[in-house]
Amino acid sequence: MAAVDKVEIVLAHEERATLRVGDVFLKVDPDQERTDVEVEAMTLAPVPTPQVLWRKPPVLALAAVRGKELGRIGRPSTASPAAWVAAGAAVRRLHDAPLPPWPGPGPEQYAADLESECAWLLANDILPAAVVERNREVAGAVLRPWNPVFVHGDLHVSHVFAEGDEITGIIDWSEAAQGDALRDLASLTLGHEEHLGDVIAGYGAGADIDVVRGWWSLRSLLAGRWLVEHGFDPDSPGCEFDVLRAASART
After folding, report:
1. 22 phi and psi, to 5 degrees?
2. Number of H helices, E strands in the chain
3. Cys-Cys crosslink for 217: which of 45, 99, 135, 227, Cβ 3.0 to 4.6 Å?
4. The predicted structure's pLDDT at residue 250
5. Which residues form the Aminoglycoside phosphotransferase domain (predicted)?
6. Where are the domains of the chain?
7. Residue 137 and residue 220: Cα distance in Å, rounded?
8. What is the per-residue pLDDT across 38-84, written as a single tens digit (0 to 9) for each?
9. How far apart are CA 223 and CA 125, in angstroms?
10. Which of 186, 5, 18, 10 is nearest to 110 (CA)?
11. CB count, 10 Å around CB of 210?
């Protein structure tokens, strides 16, 4: 690794931290089962992933991937429409791959979590009751049986990297599992609804828009408490609470 003059804190909270030192990312996570999943998922996934440089628990060292993030929630994406199409195609390759050996949460678990998190949002007066109740209704579209596929599980737009129109890497695989394909499509386009058509163009058949919208509502409702308690602001423009308000306004 070339000489560097600073350490960049990419993410830091009580559960884990990620640091960037030059062209190396150091992920510090005391939960080694989560790291086991990340390493194995990157091995199994038929899409570009970071190279594992070394692992000395609780630290995992990964090489930086080329390019830059497809975008960030709360900010307009500067990536080309073709890059978003390519991201959809990459997600399709992942979903067509053999299933990983570990299951993810099912509809029953999401239903229980939804009730718990909505109750917390209402009890703490975080959002208007009408917004919470409307999004709980929209999220109900998710709570149906699905045929499990290999999902990334945390496919935020900032976890997908592109160089020009090419997808160069997908990072942060610790929540990879068997799950609902539309969860990944919704995560990728959360806060970037204007690019949903591009993603679906690359992904192909099988994207039920009502269920994608359901996942936008579900993920935003479930994320609220965690984000608030870990020092993040889901009420920033374009972020999770804006997604919920937009859904409640949509007829």
Report:
1. 65, -120
2. 8, 10
3. 135
4. 84
5. 24-209
6. 66-249
7. 13
8. 999 999 999 999 999 999 999 999 999 999 999 999 999 999 999 99
9. 16
10. 186
11. 10
